[in-house]
């Protein structure tokens, strides 16, 4: 049991991480789930380096486990490295559960393998290991960690607002009165606050107008309402132009134009369409990522 728990099981884990590392270098993976791809976005560096770190750690665990059969020092070193690895993986998995819609299956597999090694290596201390993991998860859940997800996903209107803000209430009342559909985003959302801080906006309401190839940001109730008032007036002018007969000049063509005979020909009419009203909004080009 000693050899099985401290050498054989770590060796299987080493092989598993080695296969995943090789596949990563070939731009593929054993883990094809969304959580596995999102997990890499949480790292400060390329995720393959974390695999290298895992290989080095598990290899050291194998050596310490093998030598721990005869030397007391390596017995202590084995459990220090094992419990440190479990704590490290528990922190990563706990963060993924909070920040991502789903965790990385590869990380879960490594974490489960380490727990299995701890169980078979010294079952008496396994309850302490589980308690440590539990408190790591509880500690992470007390933090305000932004979710790794997007709010502005499809074309439309997105209003960053608060239920208690009087300026936000004015905009929402205007939208309700004019039947303007929008998606409300609470200003207390950590992602929304991070976005406002990133673009150096310190007040609400903020309206994001997402189109197919661009994005417009409007700040303040006056600018938001003025933007839609201008659009409404432009539509009224356009409707009036289309419904009112327009006096236009007629170009007289000769009787032999486009053929002989007494046909007077066709009148060519040119009508100018009124230009759209300018707004004080600043369009922000939307760059396409390789998502």
Task: Explain what this protein looks like in three dimensions.
- The protein has 291 residues and is of the alpha+beta class.
- It has nine helices and five strands.
- It has a five-stranded mixed β-sheet with strand order 2-1-3-4-5, with helices on one face.
Q: Give me the CATH architecture of the largest domain, please.
A: Up-down Bundle
The fraction of residues in strands falls at 5-15%
Number of domains: 2
Globular, elongated, flat, extended or rod-shaped: what is the shape?
elongated
Rg of Cα set: 33 Å
C-alpha termini separation: 47 Å
Element order: H for helix, E for strand: HHHHHHEHEHEEHE
| Uncertain parts | 248-291
Structural class: alpha+beta
Major sheet summary line = 5 strands, mixed
Approximate helicity band: 40-55%
């Amino acid at each position: 049991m000693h050899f099985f728990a401290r050498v054989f099981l770590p060796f299987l884990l080493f092989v598993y991480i080695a296969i995943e590392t090789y596949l990563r270098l070939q731009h593929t993976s054993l883990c094809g789930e969304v959580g596995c791809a999102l997990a890499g976005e949480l790292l400060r560096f390329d995720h393959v380096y974390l695999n290298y770190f895992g290989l080095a750690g598990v290899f050291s665990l194998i050596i310490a486990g093998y030598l721990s059969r005869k030397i007391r020092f390596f017995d202590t070193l084995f459990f220090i490295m094992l419990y440190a690895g479990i704590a490290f993986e528990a922190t990563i998995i706990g963060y993924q559960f909070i920040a991502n819609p789903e965790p990385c299956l590869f990380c879960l597999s490594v974490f489960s393998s380490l727990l299995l090694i701890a169980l078979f290596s010294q079952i008496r201390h396994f309850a302490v290991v589980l308690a440590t993991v539990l408190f790591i998860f509880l500690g992470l859940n007390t933090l305000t960690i932004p979710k790794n997800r997007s709010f502005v996903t499809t074309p439309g209107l997105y209003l960053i607002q608060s239920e208690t803000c009087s300026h936000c209430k004015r905009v929402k009342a205007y939208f309700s009165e004019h039947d303007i559909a929008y998606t409300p985003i609470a200003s207390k959302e950590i992602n929304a606050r991070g976005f406002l801080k990133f673009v150096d906006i310190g007040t609400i309401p903020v309206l994001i107008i997402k189109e197919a190839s661009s994005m417009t940001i409007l700040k303040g109730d006056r600018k938001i309402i003025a933007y839609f008032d201008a659009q409404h007036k432009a539509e009224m002018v356009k409707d009036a132009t289309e419904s009112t007969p327009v006096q236009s000049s007629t170009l007289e063509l000769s009787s032999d134009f486009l053929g002989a005979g007494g046909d007077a020909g066709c009148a060519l009419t040119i009508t100018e369409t009124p230009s759209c009203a300018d707004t004080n909004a600043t369009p922000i080009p939307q760059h396409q990522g390789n998502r």
